[in-house]
Every structure is written in C-alpha cells, then in structure tokens.
Amino acid sequence: MKQTAHGNDTPISRPRRAPLVLRILALCFLGLILIFLLEFGKHTLWGWGLCLLTVGGYLVLRFTLLKRKRGLVKFLWDLPFLAILGVILLISRPPYQRIPAADYPNPEATDVIHIAQGDLTGVYTEDRSVEIYAGIPYAKPPVGDLRFREPQDPDGWDGILACDTFGPKAMQAEDNVIYSSLVDLTFYHYFHVDPMDNYREEMSEDCLYLNVWKPAGDVSELPVLVYIHGGSLTTGASSYFEYRGQDLAKRGILVVTLAYRLNVFGFLADEELAEESPYHTTGNYGLLDQIKALEWVQNNITAFGGDPAKVTICGESAGASCVNALCVSPLAKGLFRYAIAESSGITARVPYHTFRSYEDALDTGASIKKEFGVTSAADLRKIPADQLLKTRYPNNSLTVDGYAITQQPFLTYEAGENNEEALLSGFNAHEADVFLLNRRTDTENYVETLKEVFEEYAEEVAELIPPYERDPDYSVFIDAGGNAKGALNEAVSAAWFTYSHFNWSRYAEDLGIPVYEYCFTKWNPALSCFHAGELPYVFGNLWRHDWVYSPEDFSLSEKMQQYWVNFVKTGNPNGEGLPVWEPFRNSEGKVMEFGDSPGMIPDPYQALYEIIDRQQESRWADLSSGSR
To answer: What's the pTM value of the predicted model, to 2 decimals?
Structure first.
C-alpha cells in the first residue's frame, strides 16, 4: 500500500540524495590525488600503509555509522580525516640517506684493498664484472674552521671501511620532490613506479668523497678517467646515474667520479679569507678540491689497478669549465695527461659564463657579508650551512685568484703553458634551448634579445641567423616559444657553448696538441641533443632507462663509448671498426657528428665564430682598459 501523508494519496517527500555513482567517483578522484602525492613525493612505505588504513577506516565509518547522518555532520567528519592524511603526508616524506653503489639488493663485498688511509672494501656489480668503491674520503671534511679553506689531507681510519654507498652530495638548493618527479616524467621520460626509491640523497658540507669503478679481479696499470660533474658550479653530485662508470670500466679502464664544494661554499671570495690563506687564495675552493682529488688519484690509484701516469680528466658543462681550468692551473701540472671537455670551456677572452673577474668575486663576497650582517671570516664560518646556502648572491664562477688560476685562461694557451697533451671536446646541437625556456622571442624583440649576449654585434648576428621558429621535435611544453625562438636558441648556443670548444681546439692545434672535436645531434625522447644529452651515451647508461631509447641509440652509444675509451688509452679516439675521426683543422672547420651514424661534417657555427671573435676582442679591450 502506497504511503501517504495527512490521510491522502500524496507521497511523502524525502530529501534528495546525490547518486551513489557520483559519490564513488568523487572518492576515486580523491584517491588518485592521494596516490599521486604519495608516489611522486616518494613517500615511505609506512606512509603508504598508514594512508591505506586511514582511508579504509574512513570508508567503513562513512558507509556504516554515518550512513544516515545529514550532510553537515558528514562534512564535519571529513575534516579530521583530511587532517590525518595531511599529517601522514607530512611525517612520511622521504628521508635523507646515502645512495647504494650497487643497483641490486644485498650486493657482495669485494676483497680488501689497502690504501694510505687504511683498508677498504667495495661491492660487485650484479654480474660481478666490475667492482665499485664508493664514498672514499679524499680530504678532511671542510667544516667548522676548515670552511673556506684549501682542502686538507684526509684522515685515516681503523678497521675496514665499507665503501658501498656514495658520499653525501655537496650543499645545494634542492627542488621539491614532486616537482623533480614531474620533470622526470614530462621532460626526461625517466620516471617509473618504484616502491624502493622512497628516499632523498643525503646532502652535507662534509662532501669531499670520490668513487672508483674498476674491472673485477687482478688488474694493473690501467688508464684512469676522472670525471668532474656539471651543474653551473651550484648543483650536482658524483652519484648521478648518467655518468656512473661501470660500463666504461668493462672496456678496460678505471673510472673515478668526485664531489666538490659548490656555490657559496666552493666559490665565495673574500679579502680576509685570502689574507689568512698561506697561499693568499680565495674564490676557487671547489677547484682546489678537484686538484686534491687528482693528488689522491696519483697517490692511491695503483692499489685499484690504475696507472697514475695515464690519467685523463673529463667534465661536462661546468665540469668542462673546470677541466679547462685544470688545463691552465700550475697546481694541476703532472696530475693528468689528456683532457675531455663536453659542452663548456673558458678559453674565450671574456668567457660568457662560469668565470668572473677577481674584483667581481670580491664584490660578491662583500655583499654576502652585508647580507648576513657579519664582518669577519670567523663570523662567516659560524653561519649554519643551510642558512648560508640561501644567499641571494650567485657564486657560480671560477676566478683568477693568483694561485689555482694565475691569469686569464686564454693567456696561458697563448704562452703555451697549458697542461693537456691531447684534447677531445665538443658540444650538442641544442645546447641553449633548456636555458631559454622562459624567453618568448618574436621578430619584434629578436635583435634586442640578442643584444643581451652579443651586445653591439646583435644586428650582424640577426642578419646571419634570421628569425625562425624552433623545430617542434625539440620543443618542451613549458617553452615560451615565439617565431624567432629557434634562431635565438641557435645563436646563444654558439656563444655560450660551442665557441669555447672551437677556440680551445684552435689553440691546441696551434700548439701542436692532438685535438678531436664533435657535435652531438642525436634526437631521442629524453635529453635529446639538449645540454647534457650525450652523457648517458658516453658512459653507456642508456640501459638504465631502456624504454626511452631505440636500438639505434644503443648502437651509437657503443661507438661513443669506444671512442672515449680509445682516447683515454692512447690520446686518439680512433680504433678498429669505427668511422675515422679526423683531427681538428681550423682551416677545414670539420667536427665529428654523433647523430644517426658518426661522420665528419662542417662545423654548423663556423660563420658565427668570426663575429664572436670580434666581439671577444672588443670585450677584452674594454676589460683591460678598465671601462667595464
């Protein structure tokens, strides 16, 4: 019988409820947000568990005890539920820890190796073909009274040191974990779900550690590659997977990577600091760290089967600028024989980046003192590291300190006093693209934008490289774009990156030094031929993200690895089964192209170098006369 009200047949009205399917969809949406925050934020497994229990308890409460409660009552119960989830997300953020040296759980330890500091062990790679010794201290921790001082000899230890994790990375600004994960997903295409990567790399002022990869077993007198990481002298670590050394070690060399002081800790300059130094040096502490690591290699690499007389230094980006600095530093003479520089250098008369005048360095140091309200070096050393790191003044440049670097680098080459006996260097086709993402450039502002780099030569550059849009294959979804963006990227790439390699090669040729120059053009969905795009090819680390790369990428990587290894062994990259890499000849203007298949091509920026030469002459004349 139909229920009625007031004795008639009118149905009793009931409050309308949202359809069940909408409530389920809303809960699913909230669940997806929670999963996103947990996964992209790399939250701990116990954080996942607590969130799961909280959500389960909420669902039971919502659909049983609160099933018949009115909307406001349910909403009031939602608030503490969301608050609990917020607290869990806050306390389950990934902890800081050192990164394991091996790529698999419970790696097997190596036999004991004895060096001057004591005994140590490393770990084997999973196939036992390579031994890894990670986190070896090469200097005293530069903390306390040793902050802003030259690196000191390392301490020894008792017992056996287990070198199975990388040392902490140097103090540096860090991106939000979620942001970093999104960059990995959308730009590099490297991100994948991994329940065991729920940690962040440890960071510390105590960062002067290095790592060694060697072929497994008894080896001796092997050539050594020492790699210096990039990162604008402000970021980076010796542990990044792009340049881990196990695949190169399989080809019969030792690979060493190292950390060094960065930003304000590595490159602050101050007159009082110079006065208290026995060498009257300041401003190049990070470079002095690298020299200390090379001294450690000379004294200890024999224990790992390496030959201290066969050391090659290598670096990318700011690391390549450091390689260039080591090539002109009197302190580095005899510590290496060959040099490899990828995507940077400081041979220009007035380098566009990674280098500044000593006066500018001192001015920045004085500004930092004022910023923190201190007047002495002792006060600078008392500022907590995490606070000092927040200075708004950049410290991302080497300088002529009169000790590590005694004069403008190009003058050392003109005097023939550089250290390298052979040189391999080069650049990527789209070096500047990622540095100009936020710059929208159209025909209307093209010349004005060029003036920021080329000054009074901007219109001449614009005539040589008329406005054009960037190639869509090299677009990034956050790029500001514009119908002149491709032209801007090309011109700035030449000035900021490729010119220094051409200039360096030109000096080396004039001095009779064997020199080999390349241009990396291989497109891929990850780093492509942007800045640093060649690194996983050179070090053979494509397999770490093999879903991104094609068989053609792996084939190119095999060739590039062998070129680099041949150079480390002999000072000549050529070898059996490889296309001939001709030595650099300025009169011919050719470079080796690493694209779909290696081969010699004309340097694509040759005409622009003539304009940059004239600009550099003008800049140096102004600097020398004191007008700038």
So the answer is: 0.92
